[in-house]
Design goal:
four-stranded antiparallel beta sheet; 310 residues; globular; mainly alpha; 4 strands
Length: 310
């Protein structure tokens, strides 16, 4: 993780901000994969198994996403359950956005969408635009060191677009290329292994590798969800959408509880107040601001003794 020097504030000393976003570890990628897989099976459960329909399911997911992302942005410190609820929301909403674009209205094949290839192309352009705006606003690209309100909002927009792009690119790879479900999974898994190798064995840009992996975990999760829910005759485990969703939700809860326990045992170190990369001026912090690292530890200890406290 890159270090960021603290900035001097009025009255002397260094101003710090409590972290709002997790460090990128193996646990992070495990949670991310489970969350996006759950987003896939939950969509099928509500829209198909429960028969709510495409528009109603999309409305439910959008309402959930807006509620949790507003709570996340307003929170004053990292709260694992809230953070992963937002990631889950981006996966569910991203799937609906992708299907609206590519297939039109309805889960079945319709002639009213723009198709997977065009959907993936447009979403790639949108993601590039998000990163351009991110750069122009003077925020750090280091996802482990985002400590400004603007930076966190851009972070969540990029995650929403990335999960949507992951859905479109996975559909394109499995359907339009003729690879099919199984072969597309192998291709994605192979690319993920190359990204891991590039991270550990080369000097490739870490930010680029992070976002590539973030995009690809979405279709990887979709493939994993199908493996759980599809009938045995189709190569799945036959758990159905209800069984698969329940199992993934339980796993997500268990991993989130473990991360919460770990964060309480080993609180994440605070970040220096963000400074504009171009002007050098302090930016609005996205979390609680404290005067020192000692004050940050004290604040986190108090919060850990208060259920749901910030």
């Amino acid at each position: 993780m890159a270090t960021v020097p603290p900035v001097e504030v009025a009255g002397g000393g260094a101003a710090y901000v409590l972290r709002k976003l997790p460090q990128v570890t193996v646990l992070f990628w495990a949670l991310k994969t489970v969350a996006v897989t759950l987003g896939e099976t939950a969509g099928d459960l509500l829209g198909i198994t429960f028969g709510l329909g495409y528009l109603t399911t999309a409305f439910v997911f959008l309402t959930f996403f807006l509620a949790v992302v507003v709570a996340q942005v307003r929170a004053r410190r990292f709260r694992p359950a809230l953070y992963w609820a937002v990631v889950l929301g981006t996966s569910m909403v991203g799937t609906e956005i992708s299907d609206f674009m590519n297939r039109g209205f309805g889960h079945g094949s319709t002639p009213h969408g723009i198709g997977y290839a065009w959907g993936a192309t447009i979403l790639t352009a949108v993601l590039a635009l998000v990163f351009l705006v991110w750069w122009r606003t003077g925020q750090t690209y280091d996802v482990e060191n985002v400590s400004s309100r603007t930076g966190e909002i851009l972070y969540w927009i990029a995650i929403l677009v990335s999960n949507t792009l992951g859905t479109s690119s996975g559909d394109w790879l499995s359907d339009d290329t003729g690879l099919g479900f199984g072969n597309a999974f192998l291709v994605i898994a192979g690319v993920m292994l190359l990204i891991v190798a590039a991270h550990y064995l080369t000097t490739a840009n870490g930010t680029v590798l992070f976002w590539l992996a973030f995009i690809l975990t979405r279709p990887l999760g979709a493939a994993g969800g199908d493996s759980l829910t599809k009938p045995v005759a189709q190569g799945g485990l036959g758990w159905g959408t209800a069984g698969g969703t329940a199992a993934l939700f339980a796993l997500l809860l268990a991993l989130t509880a473990y991360q919460t326990w770990e964060v309480r045992r080993h609180p994440l170190p605070p970040l220096p107040v963000a400074i504009d990369r171009r002007t050098g001026r302090p930016q609005r912090p996205n979390g609680a601001q404290v005067a020192s690292e000692e004050a940050a530890r004290a604040a986190l200890q108090r919060a850990s003794r208060t259920p749901g406290g910030d």
